[in-house]
Amino acid sequence: MKVLQHAAFAAKTGVPATLCLALAACSAMSVSTPAFVQDALPAAVKAPAGHAVALESVGVGEITYECRARADNTTVQEWVFVGPRAELRDRAGKAIGSYFGPPATWVSQDGSAITGAQLAIAPSAPGNIPLQLVKANASAKPGVLAGVAYIQRVATRGGVAPASECSAATLGKREIVKYQADYIFWKPA
To answer: What is the domain extent for residue 21?
Structure first.
């Protein structure tokens, strides 16, 4: 029956019947992206047992640092993290939300939003910000982020403090560095 429907469509539209059949076959195929697997991550940044991946995203953006005097020794200066700003994209590259802080805040395009507090970090490759596990605060709005309990920052690239000079002469200077990271959102299973 389906073959006859595709043949009729082909005759009506001028689209070759073989193309109609090929497209129909592809549309019947189930294509799914496997859920993120955290087996290779350090234990400190693994989401607890009893949770499942709810959303995977790629954050592409920047982190701002400021040259400041150290709190414990004001004669020494260092680059201090000010905050991130990133666009969140799905695995296909489509914008799905944003990430900024402080406080660490994730906002979905559906209006749901969560904040969170860092629970743990683990080293990443040199030149990359650390991996991170965050405990989420409940979302006040329904949507894709409602019910998220944990967020992981993994697959980090860039984002470390600038290599440029931070001294008494440059106090207050801000520098922006590019970064990218995967943000994995976990809900109770």
So the answer is: 1-31
Residue 36 lies in a domain: no
Measured distance CA(45)–CA(62) in Å, rounded: 22
- Same-domain check for residues 55 and 97: yes
- Where do the H-state alpha helices sit in the chain? 2-13, 17-28
The HSE-up count of residue 143 (CA atoms within 13 Å, CB side) is: 16
What sign for the dihedral angle of Cα 163, 165, 167, 170? negative
* Distance between start and end Cα atoms, the chain: 41
Q: Measured between alpha carbons, how far is 151 from 121 in angstroms, rounded to an integer?
A: 12
pTM: 0.81
Q: 18 and 94 share a domain?
A: no
The string over 75-110, giving b where at least 16 C-beta atoms fall within 10 Å of a residue's C-beta and e elsewhere, is eebebeeeebebebbeeeeeebbbbebeebbbbbee
Q: CA Rg, the chain, in Å?
A: 23
- Select from 82, 97, 81 the least CA-distant residue to 139: 97
Q: Domain total for the chain?
A: 2
Summarised one tens digit per residue, pLDDT across range 36-82 is 899 999 999 999 999 999 999 999 999 999 999 999 999 999 999 99
